[in-house]
Design a protein that fits this description.
single chain; about 240 residues; alpha+beta; 3-stranded antiparallel beta sheet; 5 helices
C-alpha cells in the first residue's frame, strides 16, 4: 500500500462564522477525490441537531435519517436547523446541509427526554444482542482505499468483530482517530453517524474495484437511517 505524503489534519472540520464549516481532507470518501464520505457530514448535522434538542431538555436522539440528495463536495458548507415540533417529551427536528447555496442533504431527527427507569429482569428481547467480540479482542482492519489520499480511512480506526472486511456480511467496530471539530469531544450519536454509512461497503459482496465502478456510475439518492435504543459510554461504535 502506497502512503500519501499529505499532512494529516487535526480534525474533520473547522468551524467558520455562524453555521458554516470547512471540511478537511479527512472527510474525503473513496468514490471521488473531491467528494466527502457521507459519514462525517451526517455527523456534523447530527451535532447541530443535538445542540438544538439539548436547549429544550431533550437528551436522547432516538432516530436520525439522512437523505443524501447529491454528492457532498469538499468545500465550505452550512447547516440550517429547523425545529418542527417540541412537546413535553419529544421533539422533531430537521436540517439542510448546503454547499454553494445548494442543498446536498436533508436530515430529520426525533429527540426524546430521558428518564431513569429500571427495567425488570426477564423482559422479552432483553438483554439486547451484543457483538461477538469486543474491540480489544478484534483484529484491526484496513480499508481497501487507504493510503492513496488522506481521507476517511485516516479518520477512523476499525476492528473486525465478525466476518471478513469487504468480503460479505461482517460486524466492525469503529473509533474516531481525530475529532469532528478541534478540541471538542464528539458525542456517541456523532460517532455512530460517522460509521453508519459504511455498513453497505464493509459488508459488500462485490470486490472494491467493481463496487467503485457501480457507485461512481450511479447518481441515485441515498438514505441513511440510525435508530438508537441504547448508547455506549466508550469511544467505539459497531457497524454491520
Amino acid at each position: 500500500m502506497n502512503r500519501t505524503t499529505e499532512s494529516m489534519p487535526s480534525s474533520a472540520y473547522a468551524a467558520l462564522d455562524g453555521a458554516s464549516y470547512r471540511p478537511s481532507p479527512l472527510t474525503r470518501g473513496p468514490w471521488h477525490p473531491d467528494h466527502q464520505h457521507a459519514g462525517p457530514p451526517i455527523a456534523l448535522v447530527c451535532r447541530v441537531i443535538e445542540n438544538a434538542a439539548l436547549k429544550v431538555g431533550l437528551t436522547h436522539l432516538s432516530r436520525l435519517t439522512a437523505n443524501l440528495l447529491r454528492p457532498v463536495p469538499i468545500r465550505d458548507l452550512t447547516v440550517e436547523i429547523i425545529t418542527n415540533y417540541v412537546g413535553r417529551n419529544t421533539g422533531h427536528f430537521s436540517a439542510r446541509l448546503n454547499v454553494d447555496d445548494k442543498e446536498v442533504a436533508h436530515v430529520t431527527a426525533l429527540a426524546q427526554r430521558e428518564n431513569d427507569v429500571k427495567l425488570p429482569d426477564g423482559l422479552p428481547g432483553h438483554p439486547l444482542p451484543r457483538a461477538p467480540r469486543g474491540p480489544d479482542d478484534s483484529p484491526a482492519a484496513i480499508f481497501p482505499f487507504a493510503g492513496k489520499h488522506v481521507g476517511y480511512a485516516d479518520l477512523v480506526d476499525t476492528r473486525v468483530a465478525r466476518g471478513l472486511f469487504f468480503r460479505g456480511p461482517c460486524a466492525v467496530w469503529f473509533r474516531l482517530r481525530r475529532p469532528l471539530l478541534e478540541n471538542e469531544e464528539p458525542s456517541v450519536y456523532q460517532r455512530v453517524a460517522v460509521a453508519a454509512d459504511s455498513g453497505n461497503g464493509i459488508s459488500a459482496i462485490l470486490n472494491f474495484a467493481t463496487l467503485a465502478k457501480v457507485r461512481f456510475g450511479s447518481r441515485a439518492a441515498v438514505e441513511a437511517n440510525q435508530h438508537h435504543c441504547r448508547w455506549r459510554q466508550t469511544a467505539w461504535s459497531r457497524d454491520g
